[in-house]
Design brief:
Elements (H helix, E strand, L loop, with lengths): L5 H11 L14 H17 L4 E3 L6 H13 L3 E3 L7 H11 L2 E8 L14 H6 L13 E7 L9 E10 L24 E9 L1
Parallel strand pairs: 1-2
Antiparallel strand pairs: 3-4, 3-6, 5-6
Length: about 200
């Protein structure tokens, strides 16, 4: 969903100093395939003594419940350290700590191509429409963190091509999921703008 190159993901993890395990699904993956592969991965971690998974969810009750139900199936629990903290408070703390992050994807129901490739900073926050959560919690935008107090050194990149991809329902059986973007109504999603971030 973020459209970030694997090389940048690897560099991000290396700079933070955390192990990274990548799980791959097919290009037109179904929710069933995703859940099967995630369950197998989680069970392998459980066998090594892991009992829970941490998530950065803030206030989406249905998403939290979906995560907890899936974890319960494999005998694990969810940990939600920033749950119900006000988004505006979180973004203020994010800036105060000195994190750097760039917008890599936007939902066209909320923002346009001028947003992708921009750093998230106080000026960007001032220009956000009132219906956009400052942390993008509703999927309005996605970002790539490249610097901050947990990074040994910044992850260097340059902004490349901007690409628009219309919404494509590849598995109609999954379309009743709460996580498929609405394609009708007052806030219809027609597609997403992506910005290719190029490793330097």
């Amino acid at each position: 969903m973020h459209g970030v190159r694997l090389e940048l993901l690897d560099r991000q993890a290396a700079s933070i100093g955390l192990p990274l395990e990548k799980l791959f699904v097919s290009q037109r993956s179904s929710n069933e395939e995703y859940q099967q592969k995630m369950s197998a991965c989680l069970l392998a971690h459980k066998a090594r003594g892991v009992s829970g998974c941490a998530f950065g969810d803030i206030f989406l009750e249905d998403l939290k419940r979906w995560r907890e139900e899936n974890l319960a199936r494999v005998g694990m629990r969810g940990i939600f350290p920033i749950w119900k903290i006000d988004s505006r408070e979180l973004i203020r703390e994010f800036f105060a700590l000195g994190f750097g992050t760039v917008i890599c994807c936007v939902n066209d129901a909320y923002l346009d191509e001028t947003a992708v490739g921009r750093n998230i900073d106080e000026e960007f926050m001032r220009l956000l429409p009132p219906n956009v959560d400052p942390c993008g919690e509703n999927g309005e935008f996605h970002s790539f963190a490249f610097s901050g107090p947990v990074f040994r050194q910044p992850v260097k990149f340059k902004v490349g091509e901007k690409v628009y991809r219309p919404v494509e329902v590849t598995h109609p059986a999954d379309s009743n999921s709460a996580y498929v973007c609405p394609t009708s109504g007052p806030r219809a999603t027609k597609g997403f703008w992506f910005c290719d971030l190029l490793p330097v």
